[in-house]
């Protein structure tokens, strides 16, 4: 059955790119509501922004949603991943500015907050998007693909010149709370060589060594180093789950990303929905629902490192 959070929970921090203070509150919602963002600082006009793939504005460094009135919410991927990974289908996410707080750079604080409140079952069945035929998108830098699978399965490959990251590959079946146990605490990362360029472009103004893993060659500059030996590729998978959650329903399919990012994953969803024979909407059976991310997950599964 569909779910929502039992009671509201708030998070306060700064936006990774804007550097502005931000407070985000996840509130319960009724069945069939889906996930919507609401800009509480917008007094006049349309303050509601749907968490949907077709309102994403292309950005290489984060995922930004923009409604028809031009009201935006950016860096939504970590909270979207947390909602999907905790099995929350319906919620109103209120935010008092244009960017979600980065917190520690991972989804773990959002996961901890959601699971501290608990998830409530609603009187409506879960519907999912079943991938029937492979679809893919390619650029000069990488590619992404969705193909049929029994649950939500993910493969990701990255390759960076910095030895602290290098080549990393990971395969995961995201059923049975695997996101919470293995991915949610992995933080956003960047190369030290890129920091000045990002800030010159007005990005990463809120980034610190406390909310991002920064590498320089073979050195991890962030105190304490990596939470996992392959934390960067795990974070890429976290981002991909958050971006895929903008499909509007859980996906039963195999996602593969090769040097993929936010823009490629969004392009992949657009390609999927532009190919009617490649998918169908289904009402989940109990066995199918049990294979979705977040099914049956508990607070004790959050990694101690986070």
UniProtKB/TrEMBL annotation:
Pathway(s) this gene product operates in, as recorded in its UniProt entry: Glycolipid biosynthesis; lipid IV(A) biosynthesis; lipid IV(A) from (3R)-3-hydroxytetradecanoyl-[acyl-carrier-protein] and UDP-N-acetyl-alpha-D-glucosamine: step 2/6
Source species of the chain: Thetidibacter halocola
Cofactor needs: Zn(2+)
Superkingdom of origin organism: Bacteria
Active site: 262 (proton donor)
Gene3D superfamilies cross-referenced by the UniProt entry: lpxc deacetylase, domain 1, lpxc deacetylase, domain 2
Enzyme class: hydrolase
Record keyword Protease present: no
Protein name stated in the entry: UDP-3-O-acyl-N-acetylglucosamine deacetylase
PANTHER family (UniProt xref): UDP-3-O-ACYL-N-ACETYLGLUCOSAMINE DEACETYLASE 1, MITOCHONDRIAL-RELATED
SUPFAM superfamilies listed in its UniProt record: Ribosomal protein S5 domain 2-like (SSF54211)
InterPro entries on file: Ribosomal_Su5_D2-typ_SF, UDP-acyl_GlcNac_deAcase, UDP-acyl_GlcNac_deAcase_C, UDP-acyl_N-AcGlcN_deAcase_N
Function, in words: Catalyzes the hydrolysis of UDP-3-O-myristoyl-N-acetylglucosamine to form UDP-3-O-myristoylglucosamine and acetate, the committed step in lipid A biosynthesis.
Catalytic activity: a UDP-3-O-[(3R)-3-hydroxyacyl]-N-acetyl-alpha-D-glucosamine + H2O = a UDP-3-O-[(3R)-3-hydroxyacyl]-alpha-D-glucosamine + acetate
Listed GO biological process terms: lipid A biosynthetic process
Keyword list, A-Z: Hydrolase, Lipid A biosynthesis, Lipid biosynthesis, Lipid metabolism, Metal-binding, Zinc
Family affiliation: Belongs to the LpxC family.
Binding positions (Zn(2+)): 78, 235, 239
Annotated Gene Ontology cellular component terms: membrane
Record lineage: Bacteria, Pseudomonadati, Pseudomonadota, Alphaproteobacteria, Rhodobacterales
